[in-house]
Amino acid sequence: MRYHPFRHFGLKVLAIALAVLLWLTVAGEHTVERSLRVPLEFRNVPPSLEIVGDAPDNIDIRVRGSSALLSRLQAGEIVAVLDLASARSGSRLFHIRNDEIRTPFGVEVTQVQPATLAIDLEKSTRRTVPVKPALEGEPAPGYVVGRVSCEPSTVDIIGPESRVKQIAEATTEPVSVEGARVRERDVLTIGISDSSIRLVQPQAATVIVEVAPAPVERELTAVPVRGKNLSDALRAQMSPSVVKVTVRGGRDVLHQISADAVHAFVDLAALGPGRYNLRIQVEPAEHFATTAIEPATATVTIR
User: What is each CA distance from 200 to 46, 157, 197, in whole angstroms?
Assistant: First the structure.
Protein backbone atom coordinates (compact mmCIF):
# COMPACT_ATOMS: atom_id res chain seq x y z
CA MET A 1 0.00 0.00 0.00
CA ARG A 2 1.41 3.33 -1.04
CA TYR A 3 2.22 5.88 1.70
CA HIS A 4 0.62 9.35 1.38
CA PRO A 5 2.37 11.83 3.70
CA PHE A 6 -0.37 14.40 3.37
CA ARG A 7 -3.25 12.03 4.14
CA HIS A 8 -5.12 13.24 7.28
CA PHE A 9 -2.81 16.22 7.26
CA GLY A 10 -5.02 18.26 9.59
CA LEU A 11 -5.06 15.52 12.29
CA LYS A 12 -1.30 15.15 12.13
CA VAL A 13 -0.79 18.87 12.60
CA LEU A 14 -3.20 18.87 15.57
CA ALA A 15 -1.33 15.95 17.21
CA ILE A 16 2.00 17.69 16.81
CA ALA A 17 0.57 20.90 18.26
CA LEU A 18 -0.84 19.08 21.29
CA ALA A 19 2.48 17.31 21.89
CA VAL A 20 4.37 20.60 21.73
CA LEU A 21 1.85 22.23 24.09
CA LEU A 22 2.16 19.35 26.57
CA TRP A 23 5.95 19.51 26.41
CA LEU A 24 5.91 23.24 27.02
CA THR A 25 3.55 22.82 29.95
CA VAL A 26 5.69 20.14 31.60
CA ALA A 27 8.94 21.85 30.80
CA GLY A 28 7.61 25.07 32.26
CA GLU A 29 6.81 23.50 35.65
CA HIS A 30 9.46 23.62 38.33
CA THR A 31 10.50 20.46 40.18
CA VAL A 32 10.33 21.13 43.89
CA GLU A 33 10.69 19.29 47.18
CA ARG A 34 8.26 19.53 50.06
CA SER A 35 8.06 18.17 53.62
CA LEU A 36 4.89 16.32 54.55
CA ARG A 37 3.52 14.53 57.59
CA VAL A 38 1.80 11.33 56.47
CA PRO A 39 -0.11 8.56 58.29
CA LEU A 40 1.70 5.37 59.25
CA GLU A 41 -0.10 2.12 58.51
CA PHE A 42 0.86 -1.19 60.16
CA ARG A 43 0.33 -4.19 57.95
CA ASN A 44 0.38 -7.95 58.59
CA VAL A 45 0.55 -7.70 62.39
CA PRO A 46 0.76 -11.33 63.66
CA PRO A 47 -2.52 -12.31 65.40
CA SER A 48 -0.56 -13.55 68.43
CA LEU A 49 1.04 -10.12 69.05
CA GLU A 50 -0.17 -6.69 70.15
CA ILE A 51 1.46 -3.30 69.55
CA VAL A 52 1.95 -1.59 72.92
CA GLY A 53 3.24 1.75 74.10
CA ASP A 54 3.16 4.96 72.10
CA ALA A 55 3.52 3.69 68.56
CA PRO A 56 3.66 6.65 66.13
CA ASP A 57 0.59 7.44 64.04
CA ASN A 58 2.48 9.63 61.56
CA ILE A 59 5.96 10.13 60.15
CA ASP A 60 7.65 13.00 58.27
CA ILE A 61 8.82 12.60 54.69
CA ARG A 62 10.24 14.74 51.91
CA VAL A 63 8.83 14.33 48.42
CA ARG A 64 9.90 15.60 45.00
CA GLY A 65 7.67 16.44 42.05
CA SER A 66 6.25 19.22 40.00
CA SER A 67 4.98 22.20 41.91
CA ALA A 68 1.51 21.84 40.43
CA LEU A 69 1.29 18.14 41.29
CA LEU A 70 2.46 18.57 44.88
CA SER A 71 0.03 21.44 45.43
CA ARG A 72 -2.86 19.18 44.42
CA LEU A 73 -2.04 16.39 46.86
CA GLN A 74 -4.98 15.37 49.08
CA ALA A 75 -4.93 13.86 52.57
CA GLY A 76 -4.52 10.10 52.36
CA GLU A 77 -2.89 10.05 48.92
CA ILE A 78 0.49 9.36 50.53
CA VAL A 79 0.68 6.63 53.19
CA ALA A 80 3.68 5.03 54.89
CA VAL A 81 3.31 1.24 55.21
CA LEU A 82 5.24 -0.80 57.77
CA ASP A 83 5.06 -4.57 57.28
CA LEU A 84 5.20 -6.48 60.59
CA ALA A 85 4.80 -9.99 59.17
CA SER A 86 8.18 -11.06 60.61
CA ALA A 87 7.77 -9.30 63.95
CA ARG A 88 8.50 -11.01 67.28
CA SER A 89 7.63 -10.20 70.88
CA GLY A 90 9.76 -7.51 72.53
CA SER A 91 11.15 -4.10 71.62
CA ARG A 92 12.03 -4.23 67.91
CA LEU A 93 13.53 -1.86 65.34
CA PHE A 94 11.99 -1.54 61.88
CA HIS A 95 13.31 0.36 58.87
CA ILE A 96 10.96 2.33 56.64
CA ARG A 97 12.32 2.42 53.10
CA ASN A 98 11.43 5.07 50.54
CA ASP A 99 9.77 2.45 48.34
CA GLU A 100 7.42 1.51 51.22
CA ILE A 101 5.68 4.88 50.93
CA ARG A 102 2.59 4.78 48.72
CA THR A 103 2.60 7.86 46.47
CA PRO A 104 0.71 9.04 43.37
CA PHE A 105 2.40 8.80 39.96
CA GLY A 106 4.97 11.55 39.50
CA VAL A 107 5.77 11.96 43.22
CA GLU A 108 9.13 10.65 44.46
CA VAL A 109 10.02 10.13 48.12
CA THR A 110 13.52 11.43 48.84
CA GLN A 111 13.72 11.13 52.63
CA VAL A 112 11.91 9.45 55.54
CA GLN A 113 12.19 10.81 59.06
CA PRO A 114 12.66 8.81 61.21
CA ALA A 115 13.95 6.09 58.97
CA THR A 116 13.99 3.58 61.85
CA LEU A 117 11.13 3.05 64.30
CA ALA A 118 11.23 1.32 67.70
CA ILE A 119 8.02 -0.68 68.17
CA ASP A 120 7.13 -2.63 71.32
CA LEU A 121 5.23 -5.83 70.72
CA GLU A 122 3.74 -8.09 73.35
CA LYS A 123 2.00 -11.43 73.44
CA SER A 124 -1.77 -11.19 73.05
CA THR A 125 -3.88 -12.88 75.73
CA ARG A 126 -7.51 -13.08 76.80
CA ARG A 127 -9.25 -13.28 80.16
CA THR A 128 -12.73 -13.30 81.72
CA VAL A 129 -13.54 -10.39 84.06
CA PRO A 130 -16.68 -9.36 85.96
CA VAL A 131 -18.88 -6.51 84.77
CA LYS A 132 -19.46 -3.74 87.34
CA PRO A 133 -22.18 -1.28 86.28
CA ALA A 134 -21.47 2.43 86.73
CA LEU A 135 -24.05 4.53 88.60
CA GLU A 136 -24.58 8.29 88.54
CA GLY A 137 -26.80 10.55 90.60
CA GLU A 138 -28.54 10.07 93.95
CA PRO A 139 -31.97 8.57 94.67
CA ALA A 140 -34.81 10.72 96.00
CA PRO A 141 -34.47 11.85 99.63
CA GLY A 142 -35.24 8.98 101.98
CA TYR A 143 -34.28 6.32 99.43
CA VAL A 144 -31.07 4.34 98.89
CA VAL A 145 -29.56 2.15 96.19
CA GLY A 146 -29.87 -1.53 96.98
CA ARG A 147 -28.77 -4.56 95.00
CA VAL A 148 -27.30 -3.94 91.54
CA SER A 149 -27.46 -6.85 89.08
CA CYS A 150 -26.01 -7.19 85.59
CA GLU A 151 -26.57 -9.67 82.77
CA PRO A 152 -24.11 -10.81 81.50
CA SER A 153 -22.15 -10.66 84.72
CA THR A 154 -18.80 -11.41 83.00
CA VAL A 155 -17.15 -10.69 79.65
CA ASP A 156 -14.05 -11.89 77.80
CA ILE A 157 -11.36 -9.30 77.09
CA ILE A 158 -8.25 -9.43 74.90
CA GLY A 159 -5.11 -7.33 74.63
CA PRO A 160 -1.41 -7.14 75.59
CA GLU A 161 -0.66 -9.66 78.34
CA SER A 162 0.72 -7.15 80.87
CA ARG A 163 -2.29 -4.83 80.47
CA VAL A 164 -4.86 -7.62 80.60
CA LYS A 165 -3.45 -8.80 83.95
CA GLN A 166 -4.09 -5.34 85.43
CA ILE A 167 -7.78 -5.23 84.50
CA ALA A 168 -9.98 -6.17 87.47
CA GLU A 169 -13.36 -5.51 85.86
CA ALA A 170 -15.29 -4.19 82.90
CA THR A 171 -17.84 -1.42 83.29
CA THR A 172 -20.95 -0.07 81.58
CA GLU A 173 -22.29 3.26 80.54
CA PRO A 174 -23.64 5.02 83.65
CA VAL A 175 -27.09 4.14 84.96
CA SER A 176 -28.84 7.27 86.23
CA VAL A 177 -30.56 6.87 89.61
CA GLU A 178 -31.07 10.61 90.06
CA GLY A 179 -34.30 11.16 92.02
CA ALA A 180 -35.27 7.48 91.73
CA ARG A 181 -37.88 5.92 94.03
CA VAL A 182 -38.34 2.61 92.21
CA ARG A 183 -36.22 0.00 90.44
CA GLU A 184 -34.21 1.26 87.46
CA ARG A 185 -33.60 -1.00 84.43
CA ASP A 186 -31.53 -0.17 81.36
CA VAL A 187 -29.59 -1.83 78.51
CA LEU A 188 -26.09 -0.34 78.28
CA THR A 189 -22.87 -0.81 76.35
CA ILE A 190 -20.02 -2.64 78.12
CA GLY A 191 -16.55 -1.10 77.93
CA ILE A 192 -13.00 -1.20 79.32
CA SER A 193 -11.28 1.84 80.83
CA ASP A 194 -7.92 0.90 79.25
CA SER A 195 -7.97 1.77 75.54
CA SER A 196 -5.38 -0.92 74.77
CA ILE A 197 -7.84 -3.61 75.89
CA ARG A 198 -10.93 -4.60 73.93
CA LEU A 199 -13.83 -7.00 74.28
CA VAL A 200 -13.51 -10.28 72.40
CA GLN A 201 -17.07 -9.60 71.23
CA PRO A 202 -18.82 -6.21 71.58
CA GLN A 203 -21.68 -6.60 74.06
CA ALA A 204 -24.41 -4.75 75.91
CA ALA A 205 -25.59 -5.52 79.46
CA THR A 206 -29.00 -5.41 81.07
CA VAL A 207 -28.54 -3.58 84.39
CA ILE A 208 -31.14 -3.58 87.17
CA VAL A 209 -30.71 -1.24 90.15
CA GLU A 210 -32.94 -1.78 93.17
CA VAL A 211 -34.03 1.45 94.90
CA ALA A 212 -35.73 1.17 98.31
CA PRO A 213 -36.67 3.38 101.24
CA ALA A 214 -33.64 4.20 103.34
CA PRO A 215 -33.31 2.25 106.62
CA VAL A 216 -33.94 4.16 109.83
CA GLU A 217 -32.55 3.82 113.33
CA ARG A 218 -34.40 3.37 116.61
CA GLU A 219 -33.18 3.30 120.22
CA LEU A 220 -34.55 0.54 122.44
CA THR A 221 -34.08 1.15 126.15
CA ALA A 222 -34.17 -1.41 128.97
CA VAL A 223 -32.97 -4.29 126.81
CA PRO A 224 -32.17 -7.10 129.32
CA VAL A 225 -28.64 -8.54 129.37
CA ARG A 226 -28.41 -12.28 129.88
CA GLY A 227 -25.52 -14.59 130.64
CA LYS A 228 -24.76 -17.27 128.10
CA ASN A 229 -22.88 -20.58 128.36
CA LEU A 230 -22.54 -20.42 132.16
CA SER A 231 -21.91 -23.67 134.00
CA ASP A 232 -25.02 -25.05 135.75
CA ALA A 233 -23.25 -25.08 139.13
CA LEU A 234 -22.55 -21.32 139.03
CA ARG A 235 -24.60 -18.14 139.28
CA ALA A 236 -23.86 -14.77 137.64
CA GLN A 237 -24.86 -11.23 138.48
CA MET A 238 -24.78 -8.50 135.76
CA SER A 239 -24.16 -4.80 136.18
CA PRO A 240 -25.87 -3.20 134.42
CA SER A 241 -28.67 -5.69 133.88
CA VAL A 242 -30.26 -3.66 131.08
CA VAL A 243 -28.74 -1.59 128.26
CA LYS A 244 -29.76 0.78 125.49
CA VAL A 245 -29.49 -0.74 122.00
CA THR A 246 -29.69 1.18 118.72
CA VAL A 247 -31.03 -0.87 115.82
CA ARG A 248 -31.23 -0.10 112.10
CA GLY A 249 -33.65 -1.43 109.50
CA GLY A 250 -36.80 -0.78 107.51
CA ARG A 251 -39.24 1.74 108.93
CA ASP A 252 -42.11 -0.78 109.10
CA VAL A 253 -39.98 -3.43 110.84
CA LEU A 254 -38.57 -1.10 113.48
CA HIS A 255 -42.00 0.29 114.26
CA GLN A 256 -43.14 -3.15 115.41
CA ILE A 257 -40.18 -4.51 117.40
CA SER A 258 -39.83 -4.20 121.18
CA ALA A 259 -36.94 -4.50 123.61
CA ASP A 260 -37.72 -8.22 124.05
CA ALA A 261 -36.96 -8.81 120.36
CA VAL A 262 -33.32 -7.84 120.93
CA HIS A 263 -31.24 -10.56 122.62
CA ALA A 264 -28.30 -8.93 124.40
CA PHE A 265 -25.84 -11.24 126.21
CA VAL A 266 -22.35 -11.74 127.62
CA ASP A 267 -20.50 -14.95 126.86
CA LEU A 268 -19.55 -16.76 130.09
CA ALA A 269 -18.15 -19.91 128.54
CA ALA A 270 -15.25 -21.50 130.50
CA LEU A 271 -15.37 -18.83 133.23
CA GLY A 272 -15.12 -19.76 136.92
CA PRO A 273 -15.97 -17.81 140.07
CA GLY A 274 -14.69 -14.25 140.02
CA ARG A 275 -15.34 -10.75 138.78
CA TYR A 276 -15.08 -9.95 135.05
CA ASN A 277 -15.52 -7.00 132.73
CA LEU A 278 -17.06 -8.47 129.55
CA ARG A 279 -18.24 -7.15 126.19
CA ILE A 280 -21.98 -7.08 125.62
CA GLN A 281 -23.12 -8.64 122.35
CA VAL A 282 -26.42 -8.86 120.46
CA GLU A 283 -27.50 -11.96 118.59
CA PRO A 284 -27.87 -11.31 114.83
CA ALA A 285 -31.42 -10.74 113.61
CA GLU A 286 -32.83 -11.28 110.15
CA HIS A 287 -34.73 -8.02 109.66
CA PHE A 288 -32.62 -5.47 111.50
CA ALA A 289 -29.04 -4.75 112.49
CA THR A 290 -27.49 -3.50 115.72
CA THR A 291 -25.47 -0.30 115.35
CA ALA A 292 -24.71 0.59 119.00
CA ILE A 293 -24.88 -0.82 122.55
CA GLU A 294 -24.67 1.50 125.54
CA PRO A 295 -22.84 0.73 127.72
CA ALA A 296 -20.67 -1.60 125.64
CA THR A 297 -19.44 -3.73 128.58
CA ALA A 298 -20.86 -5.21 131.75
CA THR A 299 -19.33 -6.15 135.08
CA VAL A 300 -20.12 -9.80 135.82
CA THR A 301 -19.71 -11.44 139.19
CA ILE A 302 -19.74 -15.25 139.13
CA ARG A 303 -20.22 -17.31 142.29
Answer: 17, 5, 9
